[in-house]
From TrEMBL:
One of its GO terms (cellular component) is retromer, cargo-selective complex. It comes from Coffea canephora. This is Vacuolar protein sorting-associated protein 35. Coiled coil: none annotated. Keywords: Cytoplasm, Endosome, Golgi apparatus, Membrane, Protein transport, Transport. Pfam families: Vps35. InterPro entries: ARM-type_fold, Vps35, Vps35_C. SUPFAM superfamilies: ARM repeat (SSF48371). Transmembrane segments: none annotated. One of its GO terms (biological process) is intracellular protein transport.
Length: 790
């Protein structure tokens, strides 16, 4: 059925074009032979094709454009006729004898255009005559195109200021009156289209009307181009009359389009000066009009105007733009009870953008907008609609982008209340935006109240929210989120130790409530931030009595112990052990032996009870040995206990090479350069001999299992340790012991079961080169090495 309708329409259009072209052909013949009578006769017949009611607006437009092209040629002919002595007044009378009203009016407009140009009568009189006579066509489609033609031919002939058609003092008023009258009539015709035809075709009619809207809107564009329309005339005549028409037509499509047109075509400064009048029209529009979009566009235009130059800002203050816009939004939302949440948030979002541009110093305005938004959202629960959530994120992000300072957002009391309406996923998104802002601007959060407020805002990232199943989140995304929280913790700082301690306690409270999965990410940065504070306290004036200040290393270490203990629930023993060792080292620098010993004890317990993987054990034992070697605070008894434990752990590692390396590393625990109390050559030698025995056992094992000797790398490593302690002056390491080890390695490498090992060969050769280099140095060092034969 519909298909046939389209086919029929094509046929009717083709027939219309054919009729038009045939009559145009005869009209051209008449024009060529200067036959005015025939030219008018055929042009009227040609224009009769526009009387059809069978075409859709789109097809009718095709036909109209062909007629329009022919009328331009006719207009040129009329101009030439007047030059040849034909009276334009007579011609104006003559075309009025055309038999049919539509062709007659098209011809009248065409001659009228020439009549104005001739200046034989005032432009205003001819225009008034034409606009009145066009009332004769009341069919919406035909009337719209006829008046569009009138607008087209007259736009460059309006009696405007500075125009060649300028008349008396009232000239601009006449031009404005003509355009306004044509606009009003066109709008009435356009609105009437909505009420023609059966109800079932409502959608089709709305689509057709939408295609025609620019014909009506062009009038407003013409108005905006009239030079003589100053602010006073715009305020008193143009805007009042246009708004009156918009409100009175009571048509949703027309109101929405025309309000948008007004905002787009007239200058920003006019909008600003007539804000009250313009805003007053909004509550009078039909409830179905998409006011939020139109009003948002107005605010966006005003925001851009404010951004264009600082010089225009006083105008905004003078007209109290913020108050007017804020009140208007309140009224619009009140008038439209069923306005969806997205509409409410969009309006407040645009108002916020406007405020940040015009009143960046008025935080009370910003908070007022957020408060109004909270009021409108109350009782709505969490936002279900993704577009609304996106808009709220935009609303909350705007102050961050404007001020580049989270401090400002933290001063806004309603900021967290707006966030409450977001679902858990969007809260996390918003928390990420906040953290990115802090990182980008390197903002230091410097007191515990702000930290408390900030962590309340980003709680979506630091703890599981109700109904938020962790499994839903991709592991990689989770890691990225937690790493961003870790970076944030590093940005918290205050030079005052007491305040910094409060910050640490606030963060501790939040992260310990965040659930075990987050702790491995959030605990380490907090520990290191606290250790930074301890280092600062170590450098502080020693005379400050510890009892008087709450921030003492001892008190901070107690807090650190509690924080690391929380990691046991995860469990991540390797991370916890590293942190205990870091704290032990800091306690060593603070001369707190009992504290350092306690941290070491905790590290040892973790090693014994939790770390079972052989690779992890190797890494852990080397960390323990390295940290213990750097400790200065321990008395003989405590150090012996810890050292004995470390050597015991080393000998119990699973693989022989690992055992060997850990045992020879322990030798450093008995000889520390800058501590005279720790220089025990006997025990150094004991460790190295023990390492040799283990290396030997490893060699035999390789022999037994593979039938060939294992690598001699372990022996070469031990030789290097011998040389290290030999050079340090450990008397127990003699030339003979070094010599015998060199010979042992040489024999092993040349033995029958030796496995070729280029790496070991290079390592050994390099070691021998070092000995030779030391010999060649001469002096005390050369003398020392002289006896070693290589």
């Amino acid at each position: 059925m519909h298909h046939n309708g389209v086919e029929d329409e094509e046929k009717w259009l083709a027939a219309g074009i054919t009729g038009l072209q045939q009559n145009a052909f005869f009209m051209h013949r008449a024009l060529d032979s200067n036959n005015l009578k025939d030219a008018l006769k055929y042009s009227a017949q040609m224009l009769s094709e526009l009387r059809t009611s069978r075409l859709s607006p789109q097809k009718y437009y095709e036909l109209y454009m062909r007629a329009f092209d022919e009328l331009r040629k006719l207009e040129i002919f009329f101009k030439e006729e007047t030059k040849r002595g034909c009276s334009i007044v007579e011609l104006y009378e003559l075309v009025q004898h055309a038999g049919n009203i539509l062709p007659r009016l098209y011809l009248l407009c065409t001659v009228g255009s020439v009549y104005i140009k001739s200046k034989e009568a005032p432009a205003k009189d001819i225009l008034k005559d034409l606009v009145e006579m066009c009332r004769g066509i009341q069919h919406p489609l035909r009337g719209l195109f006829l008046r569009s033609y009138l607008s087209q031919v007259s736009r460059d002939k309006l009696p405007d200021l500075g125009s060649e058609y300028e008349g008396d003092a009232e000239t601009v008023s006449d031009a404005v009156e003509f355009v306004l009258q044509n606009f009003t009539e066109m709008n009435k015709l356009w609105v009437r289209m909505q009420h023609q035809g059966p109800a079932r075709e409502k959608e089709k009619r709305e689509k057709e009307r939408s295609e025609l809207r620019d014909l009506v809107g062009k009038n407003l564009h013409v108005l905006s181009q009239i030079e003589g329309v100053d602010l006073d005339m715009y305020r008193e005549t143009v805007l009042t009359r246009v708004l009156e028409q918009v409100v009175n037509c009571k048509d949703e499509i027309a109101q929405c389009y025309l309000m948008d047109c007004i905002i787009q075509v007239f200058p920003d400064e006019y909008h600003l000066q007539t804000l009250e009048t313009l805003l007053g029209a909004f509550p009078q529009l039909q409830p179905s009009v998409d006011i939020k979009t139109v009003l948002s566009r107005l605010m966006d235009r005003l925001s851009n105007y404010a951004a264009s130059s600082a010089e225009v800002l006083p105008e905004f203050f003078q007209v109290e733009a913020f108050v007017k816009l804020s009140n208007a939004i309140g009224k619009v939302i009140e008038a439209q009870d069923d306005m969806p949440v997205i509409g409410v948030v969009t309006l407040y979002s645009s108002l916020l953008t406007f405020t940040l541009q015009v009143h960046p110093d008025r935080l009370d305005f910003v908070d007022q907008i957020l408060g109004a938004c909270v009021t409108k959202l109350s009782g709505k629960g969490k936002l279900e609609d993704s577009k609304s959530r996106k808009q709220v994120v935009a609303l909350l992000s705007a102050p961050l982008q404007k001020y580049n300072d989270i401090d400002i957002a933290l001063k806004l009391s309603n900021y967290p209340h707006v966030m409450e309406y977001l679902d858990n996923g969007t809260k996390k998104e918003m928390a990420s935006v906040i953290i990115q802002s802090i990182m980008k601007n390197k903002t230091l959060i410097s007191n515990s109240e702000k930290v408390e407020a900030l962590f309340e805002l980003i709680k979506g990232l630091i703890k599981d929210l109700e109904g938020n199943l962790q499994s839903e989140l991709d592991e990689e995304d989770f890691h990225e989120e937690q790493n961003s929280v870790a970076r944030l913790i590093q940005m918290l700082h205050n030079d005052d130790p007491e305040e910094m301690l409060k910050i640490i306690c606030t963060v501790k409270k939040h992260i310990l409530a965040g659930g075990p999965k987050r702790l491995p990410f959030t605990v380490p940065p907090l520990i290191f931030n606290a250790l930074k504070l301890i280092r600062r306290l170590q450098n502080r004036d020693e005379n400050v009595a510890e009892e008087d200040t709450p921030a003492t290393p001892k008190k901070i270490f107690q807090i650190l112990n509690q924080i690391i203990e929380a990691l046991s629930s995860v469990p991540v023993p390797e991370v916890a052990m590293r942190l205990y060792l870091q704290c032990a080292e800091a306690a060593d620098d603070s001369d707190l032996e009992p504290v350092a010993y306690e941290f070491f004890t905790q590290a040892y317990l973790l090693y014994e009870e939790e770390i079972s993987d052989s690779k992890a054990q190797v890494t852990a034992i080397h960390l323990i040995i390295g940290t213990l070697q750097r400790m200065h605070v321990f008395g003989v008894e405590n150090r012996d206990t810890l050292t004995h434990k470390a050597t015991g752990y080393s000998a119990k590692l699973l693989k022989k090479p690992d055992q060997c390396r850990a045992v020879y590393a322990c030798s450093h625990l008995f000889w520390v350069d800058d501590q005279d109390s720790i220089k025990d050559g006997e025990r150094v030698l004991l460790c190295l001999k023990r390492a040799l025995r283990i290396a030997n056992a490893a060699q035999q094992m390789a022999n037994a299992t593979r039938g060939s000797g294992g690598s001699v790398t372990l022996f070469i490593e031990i030789l290097n340790k011998y040389l290290y302690f030999f050079e340090k002056g450990v008397t127990q390491i003699t030339v003979a012991s070094v010599q015998s080890l060199i010979e042992l390695i040489t024999n092993e490498m040349q033995g029958e079961n030796a496995t070729p090992d280029p790496t070991a060969d290079a390592f050994f050769a390099s070691t021998l080169r070092f000995i030779q280099f030391q010999k060649d140095k001469g002096g005390a060092v050369g003398e020392k090495y002289e006896a070693i034969k290589v």
